[in-house]
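From the thread on structure requests for the teaching lab: each student submitted one protein with a one-line request. Submission from student K.M.:

"Model DUF4810 domain-containing protein from Pluralibacter gergoviae, tokens only."
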Amino acid sequence: MLAGCSTNKPQEIYTWGDYQDTIYQYYNHESSPQEQIAALQKLIEQARAANKPVPPGVHAQLGMLYGNTGNSGLARAEFNAEKTQYPESAAYINFLLAKKEREVK
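Reply posted by the TA:
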């Protein structure tokens, strides 16, 4: 009967860290791409240390930042990491990669 009054906090699936703040700062130009990259790398390390999956979109955001700073190899690696971890993102990631390749040509 008292199970509904339990104080046990549900386990979080992901380690979100400062992800929302990082994204907010990105769209409001409150931090440099290098600061954003460092924040997302830190989030990935925190997730791994907690033995939890990296939240959806983190690798894609990091890939976008790498691409915007001219690191196309790292960008592709992060996009592939997003597709591997979240296969449902593959169609969108492939679209972004194809679009970027057309822009380069």
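TA comment: The mean pLDDT is 89. Helices lie at 19-27, 33-49, 58-68, 72-85, 90-104.
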